[in-house]
Amino acid sequence: MLKDTKSKEIFEHACEVMPGGVNSPVRAYRAVGLTPRFIDHARGSKIYDVDGNEYIDYIGSWGPMILGHARREVVDAVCRAAERGTSYGAPTLAEVELAEMIIEAVPCADMVRLVNSGTEAVMSAVRAARGYTGRELIVKFEGCYHGHSDGLLVKAGSGLLTENVPDSAGVPAAFAASTLTANYNDEDSVRDIFEACGNKIAALIVEPVAANMGVVPPKLGFLQFLRKITRDYGTVLIFDEVITGFRLSYGGASQYYGVTPDMATLGKIIGGGMPLAAYCGKKEIMSMVSPTGPVYQAGTLSGNPAAVAAGLATLKLLKANPSVYAAIDQKGAGLADALTTAIEKYHIPATLNRVGSLLSVFFTDQTVETYADVTTTDLELFKRYFAKMLDQGIYIAPSQFEAVFVGAEHSDADLAATKKAINKAMMELSAEGL
Ligand code: KE4
Fold this sequence. Notes:
- The chain has 14 helices and 16 strands.
- By secondary structure, it is α/β, with parallel strands linked by helices.
- It is globular and about 60 Å long.
- The structure holds ligand KE4.
- Residues 24, 26, 62, 117-119, 122, 145-147, 207, 212, 240, 242-243, 267, 277, 402 line the site of ligand KE4.
């Protein structure tokens, strides 16, 4: 095992001062039963922990670092902005520039509001959809994650239509009652809900590629089906593109699949690793947002100059180098091939899903197209796989229900080392017994 002495030491103290020793639960490594690695610094495709271990990073801060860590142009832009003041609480030209870049790239975007996190973007987009339609109900999908606002921390109860229950302590039952859950890739489950109460549904929110139950691509026609049924019932279709935005293509999943929602939420990449997110959509919906309309939403640090500088630098680099998308898709395909080869060679009960630079290996011997399929995965086997990869210096998400993020900075040498590590891990899993 790689040395984790210092991480252990810091983690012990961290657990006394922060819940679980972390500022976001997945980082605590509870799903894999190991000490989380405390990070010292990162550069390009690499991340370095406090014990001096170097890892090839396939988390990339959960998506933002598509251009790699500490990218010169991004760091310089943040430093230049910070030198002029870290926050004004007043409008700046740079925010207009970033909004214009988003509007130019994102098919549904007539107008944009910048916020500070994906959670805030989703919470605000849902409120705007409710204000615009005058309706209360929203529909989400089991297994999709849209941040931690109360109304989105809901899971299906016994009855798909009625018994929705909070997915977290502290969420009032009343909030859960306004959120219905359907099954991803299951058109009938959506049709049933709309036939029952479609004229009361303000919004349907979906990850166009589910990446929070592991990567589960939309079945052919599923997104087009959602577009049609929401249009038929006057429901606002929201694509939650916090992960897929500016990742699957410069125009996100909407451009990638050719389906235009009414609204989209963005985050991660548009902030270049700084706390910045956004919601956007048709003018008649976005005009409902304060101060032009009755839907209130505000934020002290919204449009923060240093964060906007990071986002602008990132989007400018992506816009100027469109070949990055084909490159990261190819790298993703290479990793997928290595995984598939090792799974077959060592008879591992596992399957692989990939969309572009997003991929997941599920430890189940069936295809994974729905949340129910995801629940058949062997989490103990994932845990063993994770430990073997980490110990070989490959830094993947410490949870079966996340994605591998391939980025522009992953070199051929990185990919070769990763393929070697995959083969060794799968060989050992097989030798140790499955
Ligand atoms: P944030 O509030 O964490 O910025 O964004 C929430 C969010 C919204 N929508 C989607 C599709 C998301 O994936 C997320 C957050 N993603 C997780 C990773 N699966 C963030 C990692 C974490 O929670 O620490």
